[in-house]
Write a structure and sequence with these properties.
Layout (H helix, E strand, L loop, with lengths): L2 E5 L2 H9 L3 E10 L2 E8 L12 H12 L1
Antiparallel strand pairs: 1-3, 2-3
């Protein structure tokens, strides 16, 4: 799925360009300090679930070890 992000931070811009899981499709310079980046995630990328709870997972793992 194509995603669009307005980037003002140069560090974030270069991270999007060099990150292995993102494929940059298009870049448009909106202003001198703002870039519009169109990108997709690679096939190997698995997004984090919002329903994951680290505390519950830790408890379950600890109980399983007993």
């Amino acid at each position: 799925m194509l995603q669009v992000e307005l980037v003002k931070d140069p560090e974030r811009y270069f991270k999007l360009l060099t990150y292995q899981c993102t494929q940059v499709k298009n870049i448009q310079f909106v202003k001198d300090e703002c870039v519009e980046v169109y990108y997709t995630r690679g096939e190997g990328f698995v997004p984090a679930s919002e329903k994951t709870n680290v505390v519950i997972d830790t408890f379950n793992t600890a109980q399983a070890c007993l």
